[in-house]
UniProtKB/TrEMBL annotation:
Domain N-acetyltransferase: start-end pairs: 9-94
Name listed for the protein in its UniProt record: N-acetyltransferase domain-containing protein
Family matches, as Gene3D superfamilies: 3.40.630.30
PROSITE patterns reported in the protein's UniProt record: GNAT_YJDJ (PS51729)
Domain of life: Bacteria
Pfam families: Acetyltransf_CG
Organism expressing this protein natively: uncultured Acidimicrobiales bacterium
Length: 101
């Protein structure tokens, strides 16, 4: 399997999406408040940078929200920028752009 084909996994018990390669994780951490999926933080190790892994993590959030009807709340700056840069993806989901707090 090519590294870019490794799946992004929704580890719902730990409120995170992750991509694992060679025992190293990239992750997107979220919390749930009712039907709101609040994206808190995206972390990608240096070794994974430049490969689109962070974007795949946010895409996985969007895919989940599209199928579940949850509203994405992108408090993570990266996730918010990615969604704004992907208008076709953003148009298919409910997004609450309200800032934290």
């Amino acid at each position: 399997m090519q590294p870019e084909e490794a799946p992004v996994v929704d580890d719902a018990a730990n409120h995170r999406f992750h991509f694992t390669e060679g025992g190293v994780d990239a992750e997107l951490v979220y919390q749930l408040e009712g039907d709101r999926l609040i994206v808190l933080h995206t972390q990608v190790p240096e070794a994974f940078r430049g490969r689109g892994i962070a974007g795949r993590l946010v895409q996985a959030v969007a895919d989940r929200a599209k199928s579940s009807g949850e509203t994405v709340v992108p408090w993570c700056p990266y996730a918010g920028k990615w969604l704004k840069d992907q208008p076709d993806v953003a148009a298919g989901i409910k997004i609450d752009w309200s800032p934290p707090g």
